Every structure is written in structure tokens, then in C-alpha cells.
């Protein structure tokens, strides 16, 4: 149990997969006198700010330094908020996949 930002409590429970699936399908469970919402917990994905790849941090990164490139079009010299070009995911481009999206969104296969 831990408090969240609104002062309520959050409980994290580890269950076997079949029990967790049943609980999530019901959507709510009773804890004491209160019915609580149930959601699956997904671990936070780590991303490097230097090379923009997933799975490691910038500290000790030995891959290409892309920190000066725009995250939308990969172009140098401007920020994503100023970019007028269509999105171009360089992570998917390196994998020879469809690249017409931003690197962070669900379409990204990287």
C-alpha cells in the first residue's frame, strides 16, 4: 500500500497470470468495505536521452549521440516543438520497419 497524489491508497499485488486476468476482467474488487478499480501494472520503460534507444540510460551510453537531433524528423539544429516536417522514427528505420511515426508511440516497433 502507498498513497497516491490525491491522498487515496494504491495497493500493488502480485498474482499468478490466470488470477490476474480474471481480476482485471471483472474490473473491480472488494477490499474491506470499499470496491476498488483494478488495473494491470506495466513496468516503466527506460530510454536513453543520448541515443534515444530503449533499455539503457545515457550514463555510459556508447551508441551514436543523437541528443542534438529533432525527435520528430531527425534533423539537426531545431527542437521538436519547432519542427514542420512529418514524423520519421529513426529507430524503426534502422530496423527496416515502417517509420512514419514518433519514436515514443504505440506504433513504434523498437
From TrEMBL:
Transmembrane segment boundaries: none
Gene3D superfamilies: Zinc finger, CCHC-type
Domain CCHC-type: 70-85
Keyword terms of this UniProt record: Metal-binding, Zinc, Zinc-finger
Keyword Transferase: no
Domain of life: Eukaryota
InterPro entries, per database record: Znf_CCHC, Znf_CCHC_sf
Keyword 4Fe-4S in annotation: no
Listed GO MF terms: nucleic acid binding; zinc ion binding
Protein name: Cellular nucleic acid-binding protein-like
Source organism: Sipha flava
Gene of this entry: LOC112692016
